[in-house]
UniProtKB/TrEMBL annotation:
Skewed-composition ranges (Gly residues): 413-427, 435-453
Alphabetic keyword roster: Membrane, Transmembrane, Transmembrane helix
Segments for region (Disordered): 227-299, 396-484
Protein name: Uncharacterized protein
Residue intervals passing through the bilayer: 27-50
The organism of origin for this protein: Actinocatenispora rupis
Length: 740
């Protein structure tokens, strides 16, 4: 189903807002009192339900948004599959949008949108996370994204000022007070949505809720000491890009001005045809519509494998050959790992090809002794795991900025093309760039006795992006731990098959395009080397693909910088929500650890890191062994009052003050390492869009936690929100009243 375009979902139509109840001049002050009553109600002391209304003297919370020509938003998006994205967007009421996005797998993208279409231009990691079968054809190009490309909502329809205003007012009009609101900010809740606003001005601070095609209706107050919220029924709230719905939105909106609206239009007009213009004269000056994501299919070789042997062996030596047939439209080579069940899973391996389109090639015989008694016969199953590799001479050219060819794998395995990584761009919450590093290539397929499998190969018909440290031929970056030659790939795939991990049969592996498959295979080998079982390794890869977190796994493999692969399955399982609450805010902290370690390796590919592991008897969220730094990472999606407790907890962990964990480990910092506390304030917190002074106000009485007499307990405190990164070293602890 197409995600964007003229045939896309209709604009957001909120449920009608009933006429406000007029309560006079003291209404807004009454809200604060109402919150206090709500606290007692929650404790069972008094029965009350506080409802929101607007007085004649005060505007509704959505009024400032409704009157603005544009809105600036800082948004967290979670799609139905669990993929998470941070976005900085500007949306004009006139129907245009511009912005930048960063996913939790380290990818970045630019967005442009009109009321008719949306365009994305993502870097290599973005497409590795969101479309791993199309990385080389999508990287660095403007395209109209599919519904799984990281933007689960129609940005213009959902976030233009009047749409946001109607949504806000609908929630407020139908809601009850959250009795635990952070004064002077009040939180209204209804229908799964929460709107936080400043009761003194009515300005919206944050709003969050589900992406759904259902709406709101007023709460029914029944008395009896209960606070009753609304139900989800009726027309749309925030409209998904398809009719399945699912996912979440958390946003911090701010009214924009005419300049913001003009920039949104200018940016959109540079990429997309303007739906407001018509006629041949104006159309001629407009840019062509970017291609649809699904239309980008490369020429490639496609291998089908045939076993040349009977299923019964009655001779002293059991042998077979395998023939690979190139059914595609480009040349390619293949690694074939032959085996016999139940005798030997991997008898040997051969590289055949290059094979021209329509051509075939047959391996030399794979042979093993017959284990049946002399003169007897045995029922066998001959196997050929086929992994395709690119033709070495079909390489991209460096530094042109044009991506190499690539395509979705379609479940059959695919093989290499000339692509390379692109430099990472600045993005919400992180200014680091990714080290562009193309990888080698492989495809996959398998065949049993009498059956056939397939693999795909592509000749590398595009040009590389010329990213720093990348290989324009589509192979791994200089110094990469990922093998690239046919001989090395043959050894890698054979090693995995012999150890019980035949990736040619794994759907998650065949979804990854060929230039990146060797990096994935290398990651799987690292897991096996760390004593992870083949089944758990396959599960980890499936989580990485499904949850759009393949980027960290590939970065760890390409740099060789991760030192504790044994912990990675647990991290991915937690990030997928399998062992913790599936609600996405509670998974953020786990995902941030993977993202943070990846960022270290992107900045310094020679660094060595440990993620959520031990070093010299101490546990930390991340160790940078190269710079001798220990990090405790905290994600704070909740109330302002939690900032102090969250920060205190991280400092205590870095100083070994929390005792032993349930598994016997202890959070602490090894001798000679710097102690660094990083607290990231997420979109759902009221502190997401506040300045340094406001952050300080919410960190009172910190002296005893920052200092032990005249000795600092911390080398660096870093607090991150939408407005910036605020840092304090011991020389700046005076801001907290500490002198050490």
């Amino acid at each position: 189903m197409a995600a964007y375009g003229p045939a896309g979902p209709p604009p957001y139509r909120p449920a009608p807002v009933p006429a406000p109840v007029r309560r006079g001049r003291r209404f807004w002050a009454g809200i604060a009192a109402g919150v206090a009553l709500g606290v007692f109600a929650a404790a069972g002391v008094i029965g009350v339900a506080v409802r929101f209304t607007a007085s004649p003297e005060h505007r509704s919370p959505g009024a400032a948004l409704a009157a603005a020509p544009s809105v600036r938003l800082h948004v967290a998006l979670a799609d139905a599959g669990g993929g998470m994205v941070d976005a900085n967007l500007t949306v004009a009421e006139s129907g245009y949008a511009t912005g930048t996005l960063r996913d939790y797998g380290g990818g970045t993208a630019e967005l442009r949108a009109t009321a008719k279409a949306t365009a994305l231009r993502g870097d290599r990691l973005w497409w590795l996370n969101h479309a791993p079968g199309q990385v080389s054809v999508l990287t660095g190009r403007w395209i109209r994204p599919g519904q799984d490309a990281g933007v689960p909502v129609d940005v213009v329809a959902a976030f233009r000022p009047t749409a946001l205003a109607r949504l806000v007012d609908s929630v407020v009009a139908h809601s009850t007070v959250d009795p635990y609101s952070d004064l002077p900010r009040i939180t209204a809740a209804a229908g799964g949505w929460r709107v936080q606003f400043d009761w003194r001005t009515g300005d919206v601070v944050t709003l969050s809720g589900p992406i759904t095609d259902r709406g709101l209706r007023p709460a029914a107050y029944t008395g009896g000491g209960r606070v009753v919220t609304a139900e989800n029924v009726g027309p749309g709230t925030v409209t998904p890009v398809d009719d399945t719905g699912g996912g979440s939105v958390a946003a911090a909106p701010e009214p924009g001005d005419d300049g913001d609206a003009a920039k949104a239009k200018k940016d959109a007009d540079s990429v997309l045809p303007d739906p407001g213009k018509s006629g041949s004269g104006s159309a001629a000056a407009q840019p062509p519509e970017p291609p649809a994501q699904e239309s980008q299919q490369p020429k490639e070789a496609a291998f089908e494998t045939t076993i040349n042997a009977a299923a019964v062996c009655s001779t002293p030596t059991c042998s077979f050959t395998a023939t690979v047939h190139n059914t595609g439209d480009a040349p390619g080579s293949a690694v074939v790992v032959g085996g016999v069940t139940p005798v030997a899973p991997a008898l040997g391996e051969q590289v055949v090809g290059p094979v021209s389109p329509g051509g075939s090639a047959t391996t030399p015989p794979f042979s093993t002794a017959n284990v049946a008694p002399p003169g007897g016969e045995i029922q066998v199953q001959y196997n050929a795991a086929t992994f395709a590799v690119p033709v070495a001479s079909a390489a991209g050219t460096p530094g042109t900025g044009s991506p190499g060819k690539g395509s979705p794998n379609k479940g059959k395995g695919s093989a290499g093309r000339g692509s390379s990584g692109t430099p990472g761009s600045g993005s919400p919450g992180d200014a680091s760039g990714s080290p562009g590093s193309g990888s080698g290539s492989s495809g996959s397929g398998s065949s049993g006795s009498g059956s056939s499998g397939s693999g795909k190969a592509d000749p590398g018909s595009g040009s590389g992006s010329g990213a720093p440290g990348s290989s324009a031929s589509g192979g791994p970056a200089a110094g990469s731990a990922v093998p690239s030659t046919p001989a090395d790939l043959k050894a890698l795939y054979t090693n995995l098959v012999k150890r019980g991990l035949d990736l040619s049969k794994e759907p998650a592996f065949t979804k990854v395009e060929v230039p990146l498959q060797p990096a994935v295979a290398s990651a799987m080998k690292s897991l096996l080397d760390a004593k992870v079982t083949p089944e758990v390794a396959k599960e980890t890869l499936q989580y990485a693909v499904d949850k759009k977190l393949l980027g960290p796994l590939v970065t760890f493999a390409e740099t060789g910088g991760l030192q504790n692969w044994d912990e990675i399955p647990k991290q991915y399982k937690n990030a997928a929500g399998e062992q913790i609450d599936k609600d996405w805010p509670k998974r953020i902290g786990i995902t941030r650890q993977l993202e943070f370690a990846q960022d270290i390796l992107k900045r310094d590919p020679d660094a060595k890191v440990i993620v959520d592991g031990q070093y010299k008897g101490c546990m930390a969220d991340v160790f940078d062994l190269t710079r001798h730094e220990a990090y405790q990472l905290k994600s704070m999606p909740g109330r302002a009052r939690n900032l102090r407790e969250t920060t205190k907890e991280s400092i205590k962990q870095l100083n070994g003050q929390n005792g032993r964990n349930s598994d016997g480990t202890i959070d602490c910092t090894p001798p000679g390492f710097s102690r660094i506390s990083v607290v990231r304030i997420e979109q759902t917190s009221p502190l997401y869009s506040v300045d340094r002074d406001e952050v300080l106000k919410n960190l009172p009485r910190m002296k005893e936690y920052l200092c032990d007499g005249s000795t600092p307990k911390l080398e660096l405190l870093r607090v991150i929100n939408q407005l910036g990164t605020y840092e304090w070293n011991p020389g700046g602890f005076g801001d907290f009243g500490a002198d050490c």
